Amino acid sequence: MIGLTSITGLGELGIIQIMERSFGVNDRTVVGFGDDVSAVRLPSGRIAVLKTDMFVGSTDLPPGMTMRQAASKAVVANVSDLAAKGVSPTAGLVALGLPRSLTRRDVQEIANGLSAAAKSYDFPLIGGDTNESNDLTISIALFAVADKKSLILRKGAKVDDVVAVTGEFGSTSAGLKSVLNFGIPRRQMPKSLYDALYHPRAQLELGLRLAASRVVTSSIDSSDGLAWSLHQLSESSKLGILIDDIPISKAARDFAKQHRLQSKDLALYGGEEYELVLTIPPEKFSRAYRAAKGNLTRIGLVTNKFRGVRMKVNGAIVPVKKKGWEHFRS
Amino acid sequence: MIGLTSITGLGELGIIQIMERSFGVNDRTVVGFGDDVSAVRLPSGRIAVLKTDMFVGSTDLPPGMTMRQAASKAVVANVSDLAAKGVSPTAGLVALGLPRSLTRRDVQEIANGLSAAAKSYDFPLIGGDTNESNDLTISIALFAVADKKSLILRKGAKVDDVVAVTGEFGSTSAGLKSVLNFGIPRRQMPKSLYDALYHPRAQLELGLRLAASRVVTSSIDSSDGLAWSLHQLSESSKLGILIDDIPISKAARDFAKQHRLQSKDLALYGGEEYELVLTIPPEKFSRAYRAAKGNLTRIGLVTNKFRGVRMKVNGAIVPVKKKGWEHFRS
After folding, report:
1. Mean pLDDT of B34-40
2. Which among A93, A128, A133 is the nearest to B137, CB-wise?
3. Which of A128, A150, A172 is the last residue of a domain?
4. Contacts of B58 (CB under 8 A, 6+ apart)
5. B188 and B138 within one domain
6. Residue A328: band (very low, low, confident or very high) from pLDDT cuts 50, 70, 90
């Protein structure tokens, strides 16, 4: 009785697979499902890059997040995927689903959050749609123009490439756990955890600088969790990834120690953390490092000795689980 | 205490105005808020046309509509706006918010509905996003390329222009009333009412043919109701519209007679009916009529003798109310 299976068992990937199989392909399509953005050929020979990501209150809104922060995060999630591809947004649209219980001030705060976020990434929001909904819904669609050959995809990693990341990991997960599991009021959280959870930023400038350096062979953002992103890069290029070490924020390490958690778990299996995960040929890493003005950390390398993602832990090599921030599986 | 006003009193337009004021403008923007689509300049000199429209289960799903029909309608609502501008979609994205109660078969039916609708308008769905939500949400974003001068806007009507429509009106409203107010099972509805309500189609081919005739001065679709659309055309061009008569479907007239309703009210104040409402210089109407292969009815004219929309009824001229299908006001 396949038809009666609840979507809870399907998972987000299962649903996307159903969509992908049903939609088929088209000869104008340059990038379809399976990467962070989609793209079609333009008559001019360049490509139109398209992205949509929907923020839903019941699943994406941590306790204590304001309407303004929610709206900003909805923009960030979209911009982050463009950042990972090295593409700057040209314009955006926003479709809103608003519960009746919202006030005029809530709507103004949503508008302010959308506006400030879009301005900070230097693109205009030029249209949209408004609806009533039982669940706060902020669906953003971004449009950009790029050259096909400069678009960095999830696939493209080569054996011996360096695996590198921007920023540090674990703060978002620590922030979320401190609210959800330990009931710590948002005002009592360390500022870096608060900012990571309630006011994340996309690494657009870094993504554009790294793309301009033309040494990145594959890239993804870490929004579904670092472990998940590494698995995606590994699968897309049909190669293995061996991780040495991960930059974990001091706040996440402190939080882990305090609550007897593994800081590596916070860093690997979190999510909603908008850093970039990239592969770079070893001889070109220094060029990428300069392009990123030093905000780039080597965490491992690409190998053909195995598939999947593994990590050196106390001298042993252990598998990194393919788990992350996926909806519909709880 | 403006901040505590519920959005129920704001209305959809009030919310869009808050967004528009907050977002500001940008010199790349060719068409912003206030028309059926948005557009930005491309480096090539042409324009990128962008559209998003969100389908929400709790407000847009008539009783008895299947998941496949809902998905198709979500596509139709977006395509219809492009049709009114004379633009053919190049590609689309879909962001889904799915309640946990849906089954795998429901998801497959949504995929089938999206896929079939997109194929029927000859564009690919090339990406998207999937989320859990408390309210079924299908947010479509369309992308197209056009020449700026060939884009037909809401404004542009001239004094003495003919006001014309494609198709006939009233069936959707009659269908909805027959389900909502009279509890008539969907299988007992006349086929034309059933199709109008559950399987609407966008007039893309007609819109493209009319645009290619290059005689249309302004245009909008009738998705928010014919009266509403006429008021939008009137306001956008700061002129009045005088209506003689409206083509009302036989099924809507029969339904009105049977239930002692005014068929004109069904035709004027319905909504979710995806016909085109256009203005055309009188000397060029015959050319438009040929382009539309006869599916074009003259319903009135543009005048500078008054503002707003009026209608000849039994020799008198009466105002057409500015009311239609607007969310958040019930």
Report:
1. 95
2. A133
3. A150
4. A132, A133, A134, B135, B136
5. no
6. very low
Residue A179: inside a domain, yes or no?
Answer: yes
In a domain, B257, yes or no: yes
Q: Closest Cα to residue B125, out of A89, A25, A127, A300?
A: A25
A196 found inside a domain: yes
DSSP A154: S
Give the closest-approach CA distance of A80 to chain B in angstroms: 14
Total domains in the fold of chain A: 2
Q: Are A282 and A161 in contact (CB under 8 A)?
A: yes
Distance from the A75 Cα atom to the nearest Cα atom in chain B, whole angstroms: 13
User: B325 pLDDT band (50/70/90 cuts)?
Assistant: low
A328 → chain B, closest CA residue = B132
* pTM recorded for the entire structure: 0.95
pLDDT in tens, A285-317: 999 999 999 999 999 999 999 999 999 999 999
From B25, B130, B143, residue closest to A327, measured CB to CB: B130
Question: Do the Cβ atoms of A266 and A328 come closer than 8 Å?
Answer: no
Which residues from A are below 8 Å from B68, CB to CB? none
| pLDDT tier at B79, thresholds 50, 70, 90 | very high
Size of interface A-B (CB pairs under 8 A): 320
A15: which chain B residues are within 8 Å (Cβ-Cβ)? 96, 98, 107, 130
User: Cβ(B321)–Cβ(B227) under 8 Å?
Assistant: yes
Quick check: is B156 in a domain? Answer: no
Has residue B249 got a pLDDT over 60? yes
Residues in A closer than 8 angstroms to B19, CB to CB, are: 94, 96, 111, 114, 125, 128, 130
CA A55 to chain B, closest CA, distance in angstroms equals: 8
Among residues A90, A119, A150, the one where a domain terminates is: A150
Three-class secondary structure assignment of B143-168: EEEECHHHCCCCCCCCCCCEEEECCC
Q: Do B93 and A50 touch (CB under 8 A)?
A: yes
Please check whether residues B271 and B201 belong to one and the same domain: yes
Residue B321 DSSP code? P
Residues A249-281 pLDDT 10s: 999 999 999 999 999 999 999 889 999 999 999
A31 and A70 both lie in a single domain: yes
Sign of the Cα torsion A102, A104, A107, A113 reads negative
CATH of the domain at B29: 3.30.1330.10
